[in-house]
Design brief:
Length: about 180
């Protein structure tokens, strides 16, 4: 036997252009079986079917999280887009072009690189970024999944990250074989 219940006395947005609003719905298992008026659905239901009075509240269809980190995506619209980079060299070329367009000393930031799709599959480092950003302009670039970032030497200085700096709680400061922060 399938579990069934009725939500009624609701303001239900149906997403059906022909009938955009309803007052009640019957749920069977994990699916909506019927949508309609209170009178129609309450009269049609078995007397044993549990009824939940929503009290006139709004009921919306489920929303699917596309997992795009909307806030960061919106910020990135004004930053260096690195999503099309197909190598470390192409990443550095794009950053170099952007670096020439912003005021000296202003932070340079962006996102979208993914070394997993590059032929060399190596992570960028502060030394790579220093070549195209210069020694005084702080820069940070987030990986496509936003779970890693690379910064240049100016950003490391600004954040006072040194060889003796401890890893942050839940994170990791990338280091070269000598223990010096490498920008990751």
């Amino acid at each position: 036997m399938t579990s069934q219940y009725i939500l009624h006395n609701a303001k239900i947005f149906t997403v059906d252009q022909a009938n955009p609003w309803a007052e009640a719905l019957i749920i069977e298992g994990n699916r909506i079986k019927a949508v309609g008026s209170n009178d129609e659905l309450l009269a049609a239901a078995d007397p044993e079917t549990p009824r939940i009075d929503i009290g006139g509240r709004l009921v919306l269809p489920g929303l699917c999280d596309a997992h795009i980190h909307l806030y960061y995506w919106a910020l990135a619209r004004k930053q260096v887009s690195l999503a099309t980079c197909d190598s470390l060299n192409s990443m550095l070329e794009i950053i170099y072009q952007w670096a020439g367009k912003i005021p000296p000393g202003a932070w340079l930031s962006g996102w979208g690189w993914n070394e997993g799709t590059w032929p060399e599959q190596s992570m960028p480092t502060r030394e790579d970024l220093d070549q195209v950003t210069g020694p005084h302009r702080p820069a940070i670039f987030w990986r496509s999944d936003m779970h890693a970032a690379v910064v240049n030497s100016a950003a490391l200085r600004t954040a006072d990250i040194q060889e003796s700096s401890p890893d942050p709680a839940g994170g990791l400061i990338g280091r070269d074989p000598d223990g010096i922060p490498n920008g990751l």
